[in-house]
Amino acid sequence: MSGTETVDALVIGAGPAGLIAAQVLAASGRQVVICDAKPSPARKFLMAGKSGLNLMNAAPLDQQIDQYGGAGEWLAPVLRAFGPDQIRDWANELGADLFTGSSGRVFPRVMKASPLLRAWLARLDIAGVSLRRGWRWQGGAFDFVTPQGPRHLVPETCVLALGGASWARLGSDGRWADDLAARGVPLAPFQPANMGFIVQWSRHMRAHFGAPIKGAQLHAGRESVRAEFVISARGIEGGGIYALSRPLRDGAALVLDLFPDRTVPDIAGRLAAQPPKLSAANRLRKALGLSGARLALVHEIARPLPTDATDLARCLKALPIPLQGPRPLDEAISTAGGIRRSALTDGLELRNWPNVYAAGEMLDWEAPTGGYLLTACLATGHWAGRHAAQRS
Q1: What is the structure's pLDDT at 1?
Q2: How far apart, in whole angstroms, are the C-alpha atoms of residue 35 and residue 279?
Q3: What are the start and end residues of each CATH 3.50.50.60 domain in the chain?
Q4: Where are the strands (E) in the chain, listed by range?
Q5: CA-closest candidate to residue 56, choices 25, 90, 18, 22
Q6: Which contiguous run of DSSP H or E holds residue 388?
Q7: How many CB atoms lie within 10 A of CB 90?
Q8: Could you give the 3-state DSSP secondary structure of residue 146?
Q9: Residue 56 in contact with residue 374, Cβ under 8 Å?
Q10: Res 256: pLDDT
Q11: Is 48 left (phi over 0), alpha (psi -120 to 50) or beta?
Q12: Confidence class of residue 111 from pLDDT cuts 50, 70 and 90?
């Protein structure tokens, strides 16, 4: 076709995985071209950083590897090669002063992604990396739709970093999956990860939409976490829910312990000590300080409330939330599924497509929020770029 061009090293996708792959390739002396479908790069990265860019986590690396579940085994050498320590050095080199929050999450002090991205893009420009905006890959043999018309590239080596299948408006639409499947690349189906869940609230809950539920212990199957979540018009969302999204997605029931620091006998004793003529709401308020959204949640789920103090205490310690499935895939913070580990060499090269590598959310792994998502994107992009740089 017209507009054919030979390039040395091609990176498709200008998110964190693609940009770090391009950086590694350029540092090894390769002439790098990045193609991205959007008119500006790293849109999901910028959106995630609007409320404070959670770049990584300060937990020991072995603990972090456990956060990736079954994928942790094959990700371990990748994360050890370019993990939290190396990411901290990389961010510092780009002028980002980092700090660790009380939760162990690590952020730039400016609490924004844009300064880091600007410095990163400037560094890539100095290294001779060409960023082509509005170049949408059409699959196949590197055909692109571009602002200048159709183009065909012939790369010596290529890194695919096209993202998962959530937040399509920012560029991660998962359209690449059909093309790779047609090539015989084994794929795991996309599933939402780090997402909210649907709950059909009654009209009585409307006054509490947007309210956080704090101090509760959340249980889902064998997993539990003590973290807050938010009641929304569509159900529940927030850090505590995202941390348990994998077992909840797989069908585990969500059960709340609203008083994890108190025992059933303690709660029952406090309730029984209240005057018997008090209404249920006043009884809970005076005995336990239960009010607002927490009290509304109890009435929503457990009404009519047990009259026996011990039975009511047990209810407060194990309040079942009637989930009706996860929010849609495109609303998820991240996705599970993608290119299966069996489709890749140890260097993240596609076994049935020589000199083509894959990185980031395209790969079949998932992790909770807390810095783990971005860490794995950067680590796999660095790993793929390093191995692609060695091919000629």
Answers
A1: 45
A2: 65
A3: 4-192+330-389
A4: 4-12, 32-36, 56-57, 98-100, 105-108, 130-133, 136-137, 143-146, 149-160, 187-193, 197-198, 212-213, 217-220, 223-226, 229-232, 235-237, 254-257, 319-321, 334-339, 356-358
A5: 90
A6: helix 372-389
A7: 18
A8: strand
A9: yes
A10: 98
A11: alpha
A12: confident
CATH topology classification for 4-192+330-389: FAD/NAD(P)-binding domain (3.50.50)
Distance of CA 189 to the CA centre of its chain: 17
The amino acid at 286: K
Q: How many CB atoms are located within 10 Å of the residue 50 CB?
A: 11
Take residue 370 and report the two structure tokens written for it.
């807390």
Q: Which amino acid is at 8?
A: D
Pair of tokens at residue 71: 């994928």
Read off the DSSP letter of residue 191: E
Taking Cα atoms as reference points, which of 350, 46, 34, 22 lies closest to residue 186?
A: 350
Residue with tokens 């009259």: 307
Q: DSSP label at 263?
A: -
Query: How is the beta sheet containing 217-220 ordered, strand by strand?
Result: 223-226, 217-220, 254-257, 319-321
The one-letter amino acid code at 390 reads Q
DSSP bridge pairs for 10? 33, 158
How far apart are alpha carbons 116 and 46 in whole angstroms? 10
Q: What is the pLDDT of residues 72-92, one digit of tens each?
A: 999 999 999 999 999 999 999
Residues of the chain above pLDDT 70, percent: 99
Q: Whose structure tokens read 């529940």?
A: 236
Tell me the two tokens of residue 165.
């299948």
Q: Over 70: is that where the pLDDT of 116 sits?
A: yes
> In this structure, are residues 10 and 388 in contact, taking their beta carbons and an 8 Å threshold?
no
